[in-house]
Design goal:
The structure is a single chain. The chain has helices spanning about 1-35, 80, 150-155; strands at about 35-40, 55, 70-75, 85-95, 100, 105-110, 110-115, 130-135, 140-145, 160, 165-170. It is of the alpha+beta class. The strands form two sheets. A seven-stranded antiparallel beta sheet has the order 1-2-11-3-4-9-10. Strand 6 (about 105-110) and strand 7 (about 110-115) form a beta hairpin.
């Protein structure tokens, strides 16, 4: 009889541990689901980035850094070719950085980022977007990694409030 009580007590302890672990896993999954999102590259037609699948951390840091991948809601000026999607691009410039378009080539802080190959597609003549400026505080320049990317080269700095999260490559 005492042996049966010991087995029953051990079984209850194991059941309690399993239930506690399950509750903790459920709570963690709930927090993770609120913070993280799996995102697919919706711009494969434009081949803006060489990646297909991202894990997006929806907790946007207070300061964004050059080179980070971010998912953002396209502002109205950016929806001409892409529509009202959320897209992922690389931060090429932050507030205070300089940009210049000369002879249809974009330079950020004096470094060449690429040509503006979509001018004809957009119905713009060569040189139409030539100019220079500084990325305003509270904005970032977001660029794809290919010349055919429809990005800040064409529609300017992106307000940080449009950033939905920092993206991490999965595939």
């Amino acid at each position: 009889m005492a042996g049966a009580l010991q087995v029953r007590g051990a079984w209850r302890g194991k059941l309690a541990a399993v239930l506690l672990a399950g509750a903790a896993a459920f709570a963690w999954a709930r927090v993770a689901a609120d913070r993280y999102l799996i995102a697919f590259d919706v711009q494969k037609h434009y081949t803006c980035l060489p990646f297909d699948l991202f894990l997006v951390d929806r907790q946007v840091p207070r300061s964004l850094r050059r080179g980070s991948l971010v998912q953002f809601a396209a502002p109205p000026a950016a929806q001409r070719l892409t529509g009202a999607f959320t897209v992922v691009k690389v931060i090429a410039g932050i507030g205070g950085d300089t940009w210049r378009v000369a002879n249809d080539e974009l330079y950020v802080n004096g470094e060449l980022w690429g040509r503006l190959y979509l001018l004809n597609t957009l119905g713009l003549p060569p040189g139409a977007l030539d100019g220079a400026g500084t990325v305003p505080a509270g904005s970032v320049l977001v660029l794809g990694t290919t010349p055919s990317s429809y990005d800040s080269r064409y529609w300017g700095p992106l307000p940080i409030q449009n950033v939905r999260g920092v993206a991490h490559v999965l595939l």
